[in-house]
## 1
Amino acid sequence: MSKKKIAVVGAGIAGLVAALELDKVGMQVSVFEKSSGSGGRAKTTNRDSFNLNLGPHALYSMGSLNKYLAANGIELSGNYPATKRSAAIYGDKVVDLPVDVKHLLRTKYLNVFEKLEYAKFFGEVAKIDTEKLMNTTITDWLNSQFKSKKVRQTVEAFVRLSTYGNNPDIFSVGAGIKQLQLALNGVRYLDGGWQKITEALSKKLSPNVKMHFDSAVTSLNSSAQGVSLTVNGNEKEFDAVILCVPPNVVNSLIPGTVSDAVPSYASCLDVCLKKLPNPNATFALGIDEPLYLSVHSAAANLGPAGSAMIHVAYYCGSNQTEPSHEARLEKILDQLQPGWRNELVFKRFLPHMAASFGTPLAKLSGAPGLESPNLQGVENVYVCGDFVGKGYQLVDCATQSALDACKFLDQNQY
Ligand SMILES: Cc1cc2nc3c(=O)[nH]c(=O)nc-3n(C[C@H](O)[C@H](O)[C@H](O)COP(=O)(O)OP(=O)(O)OC[C@H]3O[C@@H](n4cnc5c(N)ncnc54)[C@H](O)[C@@H]3O)c2cc1C
C-alpha cells in the first residue's frame, strides 16, 4: 500500500501530537506552520537567561498531555507549586487562602459557619458526579448549593483557577468541577518552560516528517479524492488534512465550520526579577475579583540562580473589549511583593490572551464548540484544538482531539 500523504496545519502542541501519531503509523506527514517555529501558545520566550511561557502554564498531572508524554517516554523535570504560602485577595485585604485545614482555620475572611460550609464542599468535591451537571451553569449551581456568598465566591475562584474560564453564566459546572478534580490531583510547573514539551515532541518525529515554517495555509479545497491546500501561494495536494489552528482560521478555510466556540481570555503580566522581595507570598488568588499571582520560579527552574519569575493574570472571560488591567495587576504585585520594581530585570504585558478557544458550554452539555474532529460533509479534513471534543480542557483538549483526529483519519483511510 502506498504511503498516505497527510498535511498537518499548525505546529502548536496539537499539531505536533498529530504529526507524531501519523508518523508512527508510517504516513508521509508535512507540517505547515505560519510562524517561524513550533509551539503556538505553548511557546517559551528566552530573554536575559529567563525562560517565560506566554502567561502562566501548568501541566495537569492526570491530564491527557502528561499521560501522552509519559506513554511516549518523555519525562520532563519540574515541580508542584507549594501551597503553604498562599494568599486570598478579598477586597483590598490579603488573607490566608484556605488551601488546607490549617489555612482554613487561620483565614480571616470566612466566619466559622462559612468555614464549615467550605470544608464540607472540599471534603466531598472528589466524589461529585460531574456528568450529571454538564447541562447546568456554574452560576445556577453555585446559587443552589451555598448559603454564604463568600464561600460561593471562593469555590468559583478555584474553578476559575482550574479552567481559566470567567464566564460562569454559560460555563458548564460539570466541566468546571471535573477540571477542579483534575487540578486537585496536582499540576506542575516545568523547568525551562513549556518549550521543553515542544522540543521533546519535535525530537520524537522521524526525518520523514517535513516541517515547513513561515508557511501559512490560506485556502483549502476538499473532495472524495483528497485535499488541496494553498501554502504561500502554491497549490499542494494531500490525501487528508488535519487542521490544528484557531477556530477563526478553520472558518476562513471552511466557512461556517465552528459557530459555537466561546473563548476564555486572560490578560497576563509576566515579571522577571533579580530576586524575590517577599518569599512568603508565592501564590495568590482573587476571591471577589478574577485575579491570579504565582511565583513560578519558586517551583521550577526558569531563570538565573536566586532570581524570580512571577506570572500575574486577570481572567477576562470571553470579553476582549474590557480594559487591559495592566495597572491592576501591577497593584497586586505592589501589595504582595513590595519593592519588586527595584529588582526588575524586565516585564511583559500580554492583554487578552486566548487561554482556551472553547469554553465548555452548559447549553452543549459541556462541549467547547465543535463536538468531534471528524467534520460532517467535508471529506478528508479533520479539526483539533482546545475547542474540539468533549470532556477535556486547555492543552489536554488540544492533545485529546489531536489523538482522536488521527484515529478517525486512520479508520477512514484504511
Ligand atoms: C495565557 C495562557 C495560559 C495557559 N495556561 C494553560 C495551563 O496552565 N494549562 C493548560 O493545560 N493549558 C494552558 N493554556 C492553553 C494551552 O497553551 C493551549 O491549549 C495549547 O497550547 C493549544 O495548542 P494548539 O496546538 O491547539 O493551538 P496553538 O498553540 O494556538 O497552535 C496553533 C498554531 O497554528 C498556527 N497557525 C495559525 N494559522 C495558521 C495558518 N493559516 N497556517 C499555518 N499555521 C497556522 C499558529 O501559528 C500556531 O502555531 C494556556 C494558554 C494561554 C494563552
## 2
Amino acid sequence: MDELFSRAALGPLRLRNRVIKAATYEGMSRGGIASRALVDFHRRLAAGGVGLTTVAYCAVADEGRTFEHQLRLVPESCTMLRELTRAVHDEGGAVSLQLGHAGTFSKVRGPNGRAPRGPSFGWNAYGVAAGLPFARAMDEQDVDRVIASFGDAASRAAELGFDAVEVHLGHGYLLSQFLSPATNRRDDRWGGSLENRMRLPLAVLERVRASVGRDLAVLVKTNLRDGFPGGLELDESIAIARAIEASGHADVIIPSGGFTSRTPFFLLRGGLPLDRMADAQPEWISGAAMRVLGRAIIDRYEFEESFFLPLARELRRAVRMPIALLGGLVSREGLVKARDEGFDFVVLGRALIADPELVLRMQRGELERTRCNACNLCVAETDIAGVRCVL
Ligand SMILES: Cc1cc2nc3c(=O)[nH]c(=O)nc-3n(C[C@H](O)[C@H](O)[C@H](O)COP(=O)(O)O)c2cc1C
C-alpha cells in the first residue's frame, strides 16, 4: 500500500502517488465554457490526495462535441482552465485534459449545419431529437482536420498549464469508431484491415506527441472490448496496445471498454437509473424515448469489484509499457491487488466522486472501502446539477 502512495514517474511527470482520477464528465461547462465549479471540483480532488486528476471529455473541435455543453478550448474557457491547473498544482497534484471527438455520436451540427461525420455512413440515434438521425462518412479533408484538431488542442493544453493529455480511443467515440470493425466499413486506407483502422488513432497520437514534445505526459484510453457481437475484441485490442507501444508516443494505456451508443453500461456496471436519466434529457422527446425504450435497448451489467481485471490482465501480459487498471476499483484490497498484478497506476472514477479524500483517508487508515454502491445516479446528475454523489 505504501508503494501505491509513494512518488512515481509517469513519462516526464513525477506524481506524488499512483492514483489517477478517471475522466468523469463534470457537467460544469455550460455552452462549453469552463466554470468556477469545474475549478473547485478538481481543486478538491487534488486536496484529497490524488496524484493526477483528469478534466473530462474536452472536445477538440466544435463539431466533435457529443452535446452542446461539452468543454471547449475557446478563449472564454482559458482563464478558468489556467486557474484550474494552478489550483491543482497548489494542492500538490497534477492535472490531465481528456481530449475527445464524438464522431457520429453527436447532437451537434458541423460547419454549415452539416450532419455529424465518422468513419462510415450510419444511423445516429442520439441525434434524432436534434434533427440529425444520420451521420456521414468523413472524407480525406475531414480526417486531416481531425488530426490537426487533436494536435492544436494538445498544444493549447500545454499552454494552459496541464501536465498531461489523455487521448480518447475508447467508448465508441470517433477514434473508437475508426478502430471498431462494427462502425468502420471503409475500403480506403482508413478502414478494412486492423492496420488501416488503426491508422487515424495512431496519426492522432503522433500529432499529439509532436505538439507537446516530452514536456507533457500522454495517456491513452482504449477499449478492451466494445461489448457487443461484431465489435472490437481482446485480440485486436492487444494488437492496438502493441502498436501504441511501438509508436513510442504514449506514456500509459488505460484500458476500458464499451460503446456509448450501444453498450453504455458495459463501462460502468451496476445500477441503470433510466428514470433519472430520462428526467435529465433536455428535449422531452429524448426523455420519453429513454423511458419507453431504455429498458429494452440498454443492457444492465452486474457490478463486480475490479470488473476489467480479467481482460486487462491479458493486455498487461502482452506489452511492457505502463498500463493502468480502471473499472470498479473500490477498496484498499483492490488497489493493492492491481499493483500486485503489475499495473503501474490505478484509475478511479465513482469511488472518487463519492470520496474525493479517498487517498488521504486510506493513507491515514480511516477508509478501507468507498461508500460508492455503483447506483450510477451520478451519471444522471451530471446534466442536472453537475457530477456529484447523491448518496
Ligand atoms: C458520471 C460519470 C461520467 C463519466 N464521464 C466520462 C468521460 O467524460 N470520459 C470517459 O472517458 N469516461 C467517462 N466515464 C467513465 C469513467 O471514466 C470510468 O471509465 C468508469 O466510471 C469506470 O470506472 P469506476 O468504476 O472507477 O467508476 C464516466 C463515468 C461516470 C460515472
## 3
Amino acid sequence: MIPNHYAARLSSLDRLIVQSVPPGGNWKAIPESIPSQRLKQIRISYAAGQGSRSTYYGRLHPNAPAYTINTYFTRPGNGCHIHYDERQHRTLSQREAARLQSFPDKFVFYGSKSNINKQIGNAVPPLVAYQIARIFPFKGQFVDLFSGAGGLSQGFLWAGWSPIIANDIEESFLATYRANIHESVIVGDIRDKSVFNIIIEKCKEARLLKPDIPLFVIGGPPCQGFSTAGNRRSMCDDRNWLFSQYKAMIEELMPDGFVFENVPGLMNMDGGRVFKMIYDELRPTVKHLITWKLQAEMYGVPQRRTRVILIGDLSGTIKNEPPIPVTQLSKQSKLCGNLHPAITVKEALSDLPPLEPEEDGSNKQYLHEPEHPYQAFMRSMIPADKYLKELAKSKNVDS
Ligand SMILES: C[S@@+](CC[C@H](N)C(=O)[O-])C[C@H]1O[C@@H](n2cnc3c(N)ncnc32)[C@H](O)[C@@H]1O
C-alpha cells in the first residue's frame, strides 16, 4: 500500500538517545549520563568552538521543513533525521525521506536497504526538476547521465518530456529507474568506451526519428575529489575524467541544451577554482551558459536543499529566468514578498502510519485522507501543476 515505508533498526543506545530529543531539539537535549563516545566527541568539539553541530541527533520540527536529506537519513547521529512525532522514537522511514524529496508514493525503490537510502539521498527533488523543465519553451527529449534512481528524470517526465536512455554505474539504481521512468537504461561506467558509444548511438537514433524535438542532456557528474591543480591541463587528471566524459558527450552529441546539476559546495571547492574551471570548460560548447542556485524549500518541497544548476543553451532560445519561487521560509519573506510559507514536515508526512524501528509498514494503510495538498500530490491524487497552483492560491497573507 505504501511502498518502502520501512524504518531502520536502531541500537539500544541509539533508542535511548532518540527518546530524549524533543521535536526541534538536538544532541544538546541528551543527558550526559547516557554513555556514548560519539556524544562525548560532539561535546568536546563544540566546547572547542569547532562548529555548532546543530543538526546532529536532531529531531525534525513538525512545523518547519526538513534539513537536507542525505544518504544517512537512517542514522540519528549524522544529521536531523529523527521522526518529528515525539511518540515515535526512530529515524525517518525510506518512504518519509522519499516524500521529503518529493518522490510520489507510487515511485518504488529497488535494491538493498543501503542502496535505497543512497538513491533517495542523492536525488534531485523531482518537484524542483519539474519546475526547471517547465521553464523551457518546448517539451524535449532527454538522456539522463549519472541518473541514479531518476529524481531529475521524474520531474522532466511530469513536464511532458520524453526519456531516451539513462546511464548509471549502479545496477540497482537503474532497476528503480526502469520500474518508474523508462526501460531504456545502460548500466556501466561512463568512462567505458562501449557504454559511452551506446549512449551516443541511442541519442543519434532518437534525433533521426524525431528531428523536431529538442535533445537535452540532463544530470551532472559527481565532482568530489575534483582537482584543478591550478590549470586547464588538470582536465587530464584521473579524478576529473567523469567531468571530461560529460564534456565529451556534449561535444559529440551537440544537443540543443543541457542541465548540469551539482551540490552547492562545488562553488567553493578550491577557493572557487573548481567551479571556474568547469564553467570555462563548458562555456565554449554553448551559446549561453546560465548558472542558478535553487533552494528546494522555495519550490514547494518540504526540505531545505540547495543545488547548483548550469543550463547550457546551444539553441540560443533559453532565457536566463529561473523558475519563479512558490514558497519561502519566514526569514526569506523580505526576499520574495507574498508567498506561501515553506511546506513543513508535518504537512508532508502526517498521513503516513506510525512505525517502530526496524518495522516495515509497506502493507499498512494511510492514516486518513490527505490533510494538505502536498499529501494529495504525493498520493497522485493531484498532479504537480495543480499542487503548485494550490500553493499560489493560498499565499501567506500576513507577510
Ligand atoms: C548525485 S547522483 C545522481 C542523482 C540523480 N540525478 C537523481 O536526481 O536521482 C550521482 C550518480 O552518479 C553515478 N556515478 C558515479 N560514477 C559514475 C560513473 N563512472 N559512471 C556512471 N555513473 C556514475 C552514481 O552511481 C550516482 O547514482
